[in-house]
Amino acid sequence: MNRREFMKLAGVGLVGPAALGRSASAGTAPDGARPLNFVFFLIDDLGQRDLGCYGSTVYETPHIDRLAGQGMRFTDAYAACPVCSPTRASILTGKYPARLRLTDWIAGHRRPFAKLAVPDWTQYLAHEEVTIPEALKAAGYVSASIGKWHLGGPEHRPEAQGFDVNFAGDHRGQPPSYFAPYKIPGVSDERPGEYLSDRLTDEALRFIEANKAKPFFLYFAHYAVHTPIQAKKDLTEKFRQKGRPEKGQNSATYAAMIASVDESVGRVMAKLDELGLADRTVVFFMSDNGGLAAVTSNAPLRAGKGTLYEGGIREPWLVRWPGVVKPGSVCSVPVISTDFYPTILEMAGLKADPRQAPDGVSIVPLLRQAGAIEREALYWHYPHYHITKPGGAIRAGDWKLIEYYEDGKLELYNLKDDLSETTDLAGKMPERAAELRKKLDDWRRAVGAQMPTPNPNYGPARDRGIGAKPTAKSKE
C-alpha cells in the first residue's frame, strides 16, 4: 500500500488512529472539548513591511494588525523559496523545495543562452506527497482550497491533493483580471464589477458556514497582491488622497489591494466570532515570498521577490491560537514555511506518516513559550535565473551565506548587526564563509538538490535575460 492509498483509507475510516500514531487527544482544543479548526491565510507577493504591524505607515491593515495583537508575531520567518510555487509546496508537504525538486514558479523563465542550464525540475506537486489535508482526513477533517493553487495542471489540482473543495485554483499564478469576468475555470455567477478578493472571501465564508459542525482546514490563498495591480476605485482614491510619504510604498492601487486583503481577513475573523468558532480555530497568516521591488519597498530588508536577500524570503508570519498563544507576543526564533506541516499535525494530535519525513519542525514549543526548537540552520536552493542568478543560501544563527552557482561567489552577512545586508564579510571572514558553504553543500547532497550545469549553448550576446518567454505548460 503506497502513501496515497494509505491516507485515502484513513480518510474514510478504514485505518484506525493507532496506525497513524494518533494521540489520545488528537484534534482537540486546549480544553479537550472539541477539535481545532485551522484557517491558513496565504497572501501572494506581500512584503513583510507591507503591514502596519511590521512597520508600514502608508498601507492600512487594521484587521491583520488586530490578528497580530491576538496572537504571536514572528520577526524572523521565512519562505522556503523567493518565488511562489515552491513555497506553496513546502507549506503543504513540510518538505524543502530542493527535496521535492519543485524549485521555481511554474513554469519558470526560459534562458536558453545563459551561462548555466537549469536542471530538469518537477513542474507539479507529485501525487505521492502526503499533504496537510490528506493527513488531516484521519481525524475527520474537511478541507478547502480557496484561491490560487499554481502547483500543476488539471491532474494536479487541489482535488488530487486531499482537498474536498476547490474554488478558483488551477495552474495559473495570477488572475487574468481582478474584476469579473475573471476567466478562471470553475468561477461562475459573477456580478458586474465584482472584485476577486471579495468573491474569494464570499466562498471562504460559505465553506466555514457549511462546515461549522465539523473540524475543518481552510487554505485561503489570495491571488492578491500579485500583478496585475488592480484595485477597487474607491479604495484607490482613498490612498491617492492620503498621500504616500515613504519612498517605495507609493502606489495607491497597491495600497488598495492590500486594504482589500485586510478586509477579507476581517470578514473571516468576524464569521468565526459569529459562529462561536473563534476560540477553537487556529489562524495562520503569511506570504509566499517577498514583495515585488518594482511595486513596493521591503526596506530595511534588501531587494525583494526573486532574490535570496532578506527582502525576497523574509515574510510576515502571524499565529493566533486562543488559549495557548499569549496575545501580543513576539518571537525572533528563525522559522520557515516547511514548519507548518508538522505544526498543524501536532496541533491536531496527529503524527506525520514516517514515509513523508518532513524537513520542517513543529513550532508548538515556541507558540506555547514553553521551550525551544532544535535546528542547526535554514537552507535555500534556487538553481534558476530570475531577478538574480542561480544560487543557494544558509542561515545559521545570526549568520547568513549566499552562494552563486555561476562562479561560486560567496556573500556573508551578520543579520543581527546588518539586517539590510549592506556589508559583505566573506573576504574578511573566509573561514566562517567556508564553514557555512560546506554545511550548505552537505545539505544539498542530503536532500538530492538538482544543480545547474554548464550550458553548451551559452552565448552572452544572445541571452535576452528575464524578459524571455516562459517554458511550456506544466508537465502532467
Indicate the proportion of strand residues: 5-15%
Helix content: 25-40%
CATH topology of the largest domain: Alkaline Phosphatase, subunit A
Q: Which homologous superfamily in CATH is the superfamily of the largest domain?
A: Alkaline Phosphatase, subunit A
CATH structural architecture of the largest domain: 3-Layer(aba) Sandwich
**Cα gyration radius (Å):** 21 Å
- Secondary-structure-based class equals alpha/beta
Name the strands of the widest sheet in spatial order. 6-5-7-1-8-10-2-11
The structural domain count equals: 2
Q: What is the total tally of β strands?
A: 17
Give the mean pLDDT.
Answer: 91
Query: Uncertain runs with pLDDT below 50, 5 residues or more?
Result: 6-31, 467-476
Terminal CA distance: 23 Å
- N-to-C SSE string, H for helix and E for strand: HHEHEEHHEHEEHEHHEHEEEEHHEEEEHE
Helix count equals 13
Largest sheet geometry: 8 strands, mixed
What does this structure look like?
The chain has 13 helices and 17 strands. α8 crosses α9. The two termini are 23 Å apart. With 476 residues, the protein is of the alpha/beta class.
Helices and strands in order:
Elements: H1 3-11, H2 17-20, E1 37-43, H3 62-70, E2 72-74, E3 77-78, H4 84-93, H5 97-100, E4 116-117, H6 132-136, E5 142-147, E6 165-167, H7 196-210, E7 216-221, H8 233-242, H9 252-274, E8 281-287, H10 310-313, E9 314-315, E10 317-320, E11 329-331, E12 335-336, H11 340-347, H12 364-368, E13 378-382, E14 391-396, E15 399-404, E16 410-414, H13 430-447, E17 453-454
Parallel strand pairs: 1-7, 1-8, 2-11, 3-12, 5-6, 5-7
Antiparallel strand pairs: 2-10, 3-9, 4-17, 8-10, 13-14, 14-15, 15-16
Helix pairs in contact: 7-9, 8-9
